[in-house]
Amino acid sequence: MHGPCSHQRAVTEAVENTSEYLKQIINSVADPLFVKDRKHRWILLNQAFCDFMGHPSSKLIGKSDYDFFPKKEADVFWQKDEEVFQTGQENVNEEFFTDGTGSRRVIITKKTIYTGPSGEQCIVGIIRDMTDIKRTTEELRSAYEKLVALQSRLIQSEKMASLGQLAAGIAHEINNPTAYIISNLDMFQEYQSQVQKCFRIVAPYLSTIKELPQDQSKKLGEIMEDLPVLICETAQGAQRIKKIVQDLKVFAHPTEGTLEYGDLHACIDRAIDIMAGELKYKIKLVREYGHLPLVCFREQQMLQVFMNLLSNAAQAIETNGTIKIKTWPHGKEVHIEISDNGQGIAPDVISKIFDPFFTTKSVGQGTGLGLSVVHGIITKHQGTINAVSQVGEGAVFHIKLLRDGPGGSGVKKEQA
Ligand SMILES: Nc1ncnc2c1ncn2[C@@H]1O[C@H](COP(=O)(O)OP(=O)(O)OP(=O)(O)O)[C@@H](O)[C@H]1O
Ligand SMILES: [Mg+2]
């Protein structure tokens, strides 16, 4: 039998048990949970919330956001609480806040209103810490962007590879006829000068040849005068074809040639010698060579690099100008800078200058292969090249090479 007293005790016990039971349930919720009264003060918190705040419950109960967060952040929390109190509608909000260690965190807080038995209003909030999820999302997004960029580079290099094959095919086909045109032109020039000598001797007697009409002998004189000019221009055209073929060949096979340690300055000097015809009249050449060690590179290819860069610089200088070549070592790298004070490169063009067949020069002046060849060679050497320019002030091309060549392994001799 149970008396009224024992019944009361049982109820009290049950209530206490229930409250303890609920407390434990609230504490076992992994997400931070809080209850705020109408004055925005915390009146009930779970363990996750205390951990989140970095303070025990005894320090938090009765306090508000203003006691722990910068005013700007607390203002936002206050305002969101007020919206819930006033509308009675639940509110889900993404918020930023500064945790106990000073780190900035991103949270999503879901707030609902609870009206107690005597009509008092409270807010029940559950917080989800999104900082790690956000960070992971960011990392995923940046990884995705990198993948997209990589994919477009791969597509680009695929395109380059087929363009390279095409270029190699064309170069191969044009190479032979060009070679014999050039060699025949040399002979032609030689024969023509002999014919010219003879013609000068016989010219005064032409008028005495009865079978030769007067205007014909006059025309012959003009032809003999024109001939050297025509041959000279044809030879220049053939040389230009030769250069294009050469560019196409290197464009198609930027790793042809032997990787060997050599004197980079000697290579630059050779390029200058070869380009002398293009440079000498209008250009002052300044060499600021530093103390470079021997560098592992493909000589023929690198010669082409300097020739193409010098040719561009010379073509950018309209009347008189200066081309400066500066070199310096830096750790395991060597740096080469070729600058000119020519017309410069327009900002909307500079990102395209290394593209094959991009040219701002008129037809017959440029094929747009020079810099793409340069880029291909430098990249195959695992170096870098970039250009900076101010329109009207000139352009600077900066090359960085590895002293010990591609891979930096310093292989003494390697057949590519
Ligand atoms: N030093 C420079 N100053 C100003 N513009 C330059 C310079 N070097 C390159 N450029 C610009 O970059 C473009 C591409 O150069 P690139 O050498 O690839 O081709 P190109 O000189 O036009 O033709 P190619 O070299 O095949 O005869 C040029 O047309 C020019 O507009
Ligand atoms: Mg060029």
Query: Given this structure, which CATH class of the largest domain is correct?
Result: Alpha Beta
CATH architectural category of the largest domain: 2-Layer Sandwich
Reading the helices and strands in chain order gives: HEEHHHEEEHHEHHEEHEEHEEE
> What are the distinct ligands in this entry?
adenosine-5'-triphosphate, magnesium ion
Mean pLDDT: 87
**How would you sum up the major sheet?**
5 strands, antiparallel
Could you please describe the fold and organization of this structure?
With 416 residues, the chain is of the alpha+beta class. The chain folds into three domains: 31-129, Beta-Lactamase (2-Layer Sandwich), CATH 3.30.450; 160-253; 254-416, Histidine kinase-like ATPase, C-terminal domain (Heat Shock Protein 90), CATH 3.30.565. Helices cover 50% and strands 21% of the residues. The strands form three sheets. The chain has a five-stranded antiparallel β-sheet with strand order 2-1-5-4-3, with helices on both faces. It has a five-stranded mixed β-sheet with strand order 7-9-10-12-11, with helices on one face. Strands 8-6-13 form a three-stranded antiparallel β-sheet. Helix 5 (131-202) packs antiparallel against helix 6 (214-252), helix 7 (264-274) crosses helix 9 and helix 9 packs antiparallel against helix 10 (370-380). The model has no long low-confidence stretch (mean pLDDT 87). Bound molecules: adenosine-5'-triphosphate and magnesium ion. Residues 308, 311-312, 366, 370 line the site of magnesium ion.
